[in-house]
Design a protein that fits this description.
It is built from two helices and 18 strands. By secondary structure, the chain is mainly β. The longest helix has 16 residues, at 2-17.
């Protein structure tokens, strides 16, 4: 019994002193870059083009590494001054890379693209604003007062601050006002904008800029 305990003690000492040999450090792949990150963007206009910050590639021991992108079907990346592409390729140390995709079509929705270089990856996300902006134009005789066609709002129901520059607005088509108001708005609630031809009205709803322009017929 005593002999067995001595053998176990010797084995324990041998294992304890050889930890580095039993658990060697992970070998870094020569195509592994230094870590990289993208900053997410918010308040994006629905269906607009969302472009990430530009990163600089470093740390690839072999000098170059494979690059590819996945996620939303509109996802693309660009190397230096090249064009945006969805095709897999190769990237080198000190190259500058940016990611791009089309923002969601609805409000308060997120689209994500994931860029992979070597065995490292990072995601870029864009989130649309809570309300969809509009940019409308209508023609009429010079000097006349013109009212926009009905504008159904696309938004997340909630409380919004509304103000207008160079014009009036109404939610019923009759009582047009110029004052700033804070109102609870529902999705598809109908808005009207009024001004005198020719002019451009800028309506701000919850921080989102919307425009109605009247031009001479």
């Amino acid at each position: 019994m005593q002999k067995a305990l001595c053998i176990l003690a010797v084995l324990a000492m041998m294992l304890g002193g050889c930890g580095a040999e039993w658990f060697p450090d992970t070998v870094r792949s020569p195509t592994t870059p230094d870590s990289f990150f993208f900053t997410s963007v918010t308040e994006q206009t629905p269906e607009s083009t969302a472009t990430s910050n530009t990163i600089t590639i470093t740390g690839i021991q072999s000098g170059s590494a494979p690059i590819s992108i996945t996620g939303d079907p509109s996802s693309k990346y660009k190397i230096n001054d090249g064009t945006f592409t969805a095709d897999a390729g190769t990237v080198n140390n000190n190259d500058k890379v940016a990611v791009q995709h089309t923002a969601a079509s609805g409000v308060a929705q997120t689209v994500t693209s994931t860029l992979k270089i070597g065995d490292k990856s990072a995601s870029f996300s864009s989130t649309t604003a809570n309300i969809k902006s509009f940019d409308l134009t209508k023609s009429a005789a010079a000097g006349t007062t013109v009212v926009s066609d009905p504008i159904p709002l696309t938004l997340v129901p909630g409380t919004y601050t509304i103000n207008i520059l160079n014009g009036k607005y109404s939610f019923d088509g009759f009582n047009f006002v110029t004052i700033e108001q804070t109102l609870y708005l529902n999705n598809n609630q109908t808005l009207y904008v009024q001004n005198v031809v020719p002019s451009k009205s800028v309506l701000t709803i919850g921080g989102v800029l919307c425009t109605f322009t009247s031009v001479v017929q």
